[in-house]
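Notes from hallway chat w/ T.B., transcribed later so I don't forget. T.B. wanted the structure written out for a chain they're using in a teaching module, and asked if we could keep both sequence and structure tokens in one place. Agreed to drop them here.
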Amino acid sequence: MITIDVMGRTPIYEQICQSICREISLGTYKEGDRIPAARALAKDLGLNPNTVAKAYAILERDGIIYSVAGRGCFVAKHKDDVDERQTLEFRELTKRLLASGLDADRLKAIIDEQDAERGKVTK
């Protein structure tokens, strides 16, 4: 499920990219699956279609999805690109958090908490 936080600091188009990458990593979208049409997704999320189109353009540029004229956008077969993108985003966020003064041990504890919580949800 693609989610956004309109009050968050992360640009909406980037949140869409992150949500789609997350769904691919979780297996919700698999290679060759059609993702929601930009206009339909924009309508469902109450967004400007250009915002969704921008996110899709970035995902296509990064090789995460591909488009077929008149048919829509589909998940590309390069799952490693999704993992690489998420790893890069995590590294950047980690760098910012550590620079802001968050203790590395606290950051590790948060990761452990989230991993444990994820385990409860998937079981």
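Follow-up for T.B.: Residues 81-122 form one domain. Might be a good example for the class.
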